[in-house]
């Protein structure tokens, strides 16, 4: 049969996942000759084959790629005949437009884990064991293509044993870029009082474990940054960490050694277990068991965020400890994750010791967080293991687009043709260091992809740091509405091209009328939107202060209903203020002094939490909603009164009825059902696909009720519904639909 030369281009997550060794082994097995290489767009293959051989080759590549690979598309065509002596991996081509997808960091695979605990293996207890099927990727990449010289592993020259593995096609470390061992790879080090102690690798681990067992706090360098670690069963240690980190109540994440330990701590469904043991190793929110860990791990909450070890160092440490550990991000409030000793020193009043290593983190990356609601996956923070994210748009972009996201839970996105690349979670842009980190993420994506945006999209809020950054650094800018971006983000994920009814519920976002929106119903497509309904407006007494003090929101609503007489009510929200404060706040309400108007559903949650005596002051965003979830009783199905007038949902009748309720559980349960009724009422007026976007939809109770009532609703399961998805929506706003 006649032989031809075929050129094959494979696109997707195909670099850093063992694709070239896989192709080499397959071609050799099939007796084919040619070459495979990394390019700026993916993997490039030339083979000499008959038509039947070529079809068999493509079939196997398509149906059985390497475990960590994700193929988006395969192009192939015949070229002029080329002569090859054998099949080989050839040097990467770094020219051309860069569109290859950066592989995320992955957990340590079972084969490497087995070697880690095998006394006969040369990598026994080596804390940086990896192969083509696991280990660091995104966190060490400086540039594309993904080759060792383009990573922070370029600082480590391979020993002969590692070179032999790297160059052996039959070895699973064939072309594994982060390969190393005790002789040539990264090494652990240990610090006490910021002074390095000369320990062996084993001693570093043992002393870190000893510190933790003795109730101390240890900063442990991982893949994308440091964790602050302590014994999760030691109440003194956990409460001390809270005190030092100035984190009064926001839950800490727990790392458990294995699934047996997870089951001892929490109730786990099959789908939750699937995510826990997945190669991404996210933090999964689970229903906790009584007295499983110290009370201060997650105060007043029945959920624990638990994840499994994803590096050899974690496994080795937990093998010694044999107990769950708190593993929370090492950062100061409003600052990015610490990724080196210099940045970590800011936290030296928090930690007692440091377990460090000398592999440079190029790209910081926090842990991903998910929860399961109504059998649907809800990504709360998309980062390590899942990022950078790659989204295919339903329409093409007219030019390269940069989306700068919002101010909270920021991510950035670059878009070209039909592709969007969304950065890992960056965080809140509330400080100088956070803005620097934001800038470094922009520079990284621009450098790696040789990306030059022709249009830069920012939020409409003039005070957002991302907006200021756009204005200061680019001239080709465009503002896109916050809540419109929320809905577009979901539409882009779901490849929806129809006109939809978008429900955008969040804390606050800048509205087209200059007020703070957050309880919006928008009829949308990619060409624009119409605001067809929203919550009635109310005021935030003290502006930003009201976000941290639900009682201020509740007080404003009580003033709306009772005027100044509200001051005399016998109610927890009223009693939480002094008489002087009440007089001042009434004047502020009456004269609209530092009392911006809002239609925010997130702030309505806060008000209800205050009115039910659940929380008057909170220490982290979303705390009220989480506490209300705790009180929900599924056996209560009634709802409260509201009405729709001139496109406004008038909810003050509901507030009056809540005030008459004696049991907080009843009030909270009926409140959740009332929100569902509000959405039902508006959706009857606009019979079209229903799309949910915004941080309020992180609430598991609300999501379960909505999926029950609207089984076909559209919700972004892969990208956070909170502001972590705004950048995607911003880029999607530039799509050509005609």
Specify the overall morphology: globular
Q: Examine the secondary-structure arrangement and name the CATH architecture of the domain at 188-369.
A: Alpha-Beta Complex
Tell me the β content. 15-25%
Q: What is the CATH topology assignment of the domain at 188-369? A: DHBP synthase
Contiguous uncertain segments of 5+ residues: none
DSSP strand count: 32
Summing up helix and strand content along with how strands pair, one would put the structural category as alpha/beta
Task: Report the sheet with the most strands, covering strand number, pairing sense and barrel closure.
Answer: 12 strands, mixed
Give the fraction of residues assigned to helices: 25-40%
CA-atom Rg in angstroms = 27 Å
* CATH homologous superfamily placement of the domain at 188-369: DHBP synthase
From the N-terminal CA to the C-terminal CA, the straight-line distance is 47 Å
Structural summary, described in words:
This protein has 23 helices and 32 strands. The protein is α/β, with parallel strands linked by helices. Among the domains are: 4-89, 2-Layer Sandwich (Alpha-Beta Plaits), CATH 3.30.70.100; 188-369, DHBP synthase (Alpha-Beta Complex), CATH 3.90.870.10; 534-715, ATPase, nucleotide binding domain (Nucleotidyltransferase, domain 5, 2-Layer Sandwich). A hairpin with a 2-residue loop joins strand 16 and strand 17. The longest helix is centred in the C-terminal third of the chain and has 22 residues, at 664-685. The chain is globular. The two termini are 47 Å apart. The model has no long low-confidence stretch (mean pLDDT 94).
């Amino acid at each position: 049969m006649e032989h031809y030369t075929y050129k094959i281009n494979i696109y997707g997550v195909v670099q850093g996942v063992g694709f070239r060794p896989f192709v080499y082994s397959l071609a050799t097995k099939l007796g084919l000759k040619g070459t495979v290489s990394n390019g700026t767009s993916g993997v490039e293959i030339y083979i000499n084959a008959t038509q039947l051989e070529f079809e068999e080759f493509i079939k196997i590549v398509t149906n059985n790629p390497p475990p960590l690979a994700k193929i988006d598309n395969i192009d192939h065509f015949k070229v002029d005949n080329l002569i090859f002596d054998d099949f080989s991996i050839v040097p990467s081509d770094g020219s051309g437009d860069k569109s290859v997808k950066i592989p995320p960091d992955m957990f340590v695979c079972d084969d490497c884990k087995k070697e880690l605990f095998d006394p006969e293996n040369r990598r026994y207890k080596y804390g940086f064991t990896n192969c083509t099927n696991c280990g660091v990727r995104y966190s060490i990449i400086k540039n594309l293509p993904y080759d060792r010289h383009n990573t922070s592993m370029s600082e480590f020259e391979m020993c002969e044993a590692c070179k032999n593995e790297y160059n052996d096609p039959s070895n699973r470390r064939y072309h594994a870029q982060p390969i190393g061992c005790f002789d040539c790879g990264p090494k652990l080090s240990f610090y006490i009082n910021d002074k390095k102690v000369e320990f062996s690798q084993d001693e570093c681990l043992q002393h870190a474990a000893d510190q933790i067992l003795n109730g101390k706090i240890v900063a442990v360098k991982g893949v994308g940054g440091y964790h602050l670690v302590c014994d999760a069963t030691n109440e003194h240690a956990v409460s001390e960490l809270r005190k030092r980190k100035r984190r009064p109540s926001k839950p800490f994440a727990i790392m458990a050694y294995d699934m047996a330990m997870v089951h001892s701590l929490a109730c786990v469904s099959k789908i939750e277990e699937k995510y826990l043991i997945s190669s991404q190793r996210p933090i999964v929110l689970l229903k906790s068991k009584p007295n499983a860990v110290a009370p201060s791990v997650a105060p007043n909450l029945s959920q624990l965020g638990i994840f499994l070890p994803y590096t050899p160092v974690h496994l080795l440490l937990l093998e010694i400890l044999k107990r769950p550990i708190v593993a929370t991000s090492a950062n100061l409030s409003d600052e990015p994750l610490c990724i080196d000793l210099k940045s970590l020193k800011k936290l030296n009043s928090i930690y007692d010791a440091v377990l460090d290593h000398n592999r440079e983190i190029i790209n910081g990356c926090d842990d991903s967080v998910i929860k399961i609601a109504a059998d649907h996956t809800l990504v709360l923070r998309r980062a390590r293991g899942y990022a950078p994210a790659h989204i295919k748009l339903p329409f093409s972009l007219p030019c390269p687009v940069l989306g700068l996201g919002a101010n909270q839970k920021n991510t950035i996105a670059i878009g070209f043709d039909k592709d969007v690349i969304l950065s890992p979670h960056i965080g809140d842009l509330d400080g100088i260091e956070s803005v620097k980190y934001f800038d470094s993420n922009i520079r990284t994506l621009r450098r790696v992809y040789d990306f030059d945006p022709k249009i830069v999209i920012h939020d409409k809020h003039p005070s957002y740091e991302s907006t200021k950054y756009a204005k200061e650094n680019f001239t080709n800018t465009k503002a896109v509405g916050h809540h419109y971006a929320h809905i577009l983000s979901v539409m882009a994920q779901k490849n929806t091209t129809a006109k939809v009814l978008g429900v955008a519920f969040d804390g606050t976002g800048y509205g087209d009328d200059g007020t703070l929106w957050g309880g919006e119903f928008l009829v949308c497509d990619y060409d624009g939107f119409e605001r067809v309904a929203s919550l009635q407006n109310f005021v935030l007494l003290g502006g930003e202060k009201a976000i941290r003090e639900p009682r201020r929101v509740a007080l404003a609503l009580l003033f709306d209903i009772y005027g100044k007489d509200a001051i005399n009510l016998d109610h927890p929200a009223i009693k939480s203020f002094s008489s002087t404060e009440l007089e001042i706040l009434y004047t502020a309400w009456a004269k609209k002094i530092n009392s911006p108007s809002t239609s925010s559903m997130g702030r309505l949650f806060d008000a209800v939490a205050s009115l039910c005596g659940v929380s008057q002051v909170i220490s982290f965003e979303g705390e009220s909603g989480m506490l209300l979830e705790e009180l929900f009783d599924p056996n209560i199905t009634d709802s409260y009164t509201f009405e729709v007038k001139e496109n406004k949902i008038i909810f003050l009748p509901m507030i009056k009825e809540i005030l008459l309720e004696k049991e907080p559980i009843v009030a909270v349960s009926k409140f959740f059902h009332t929100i569902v009724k509000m959405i039902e009422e508006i959706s009857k007026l606009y019979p079209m696909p229903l799309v949910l976007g915004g941080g309020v939809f992180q609430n598991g109770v609300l999501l379960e009720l909505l999926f029950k009532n609207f089984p076909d609703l559209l919700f972004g399961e892969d990208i956070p519904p909170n502001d972590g998805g705004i950048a995607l929506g911003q880029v999607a706003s530039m799509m050509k639909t005609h």
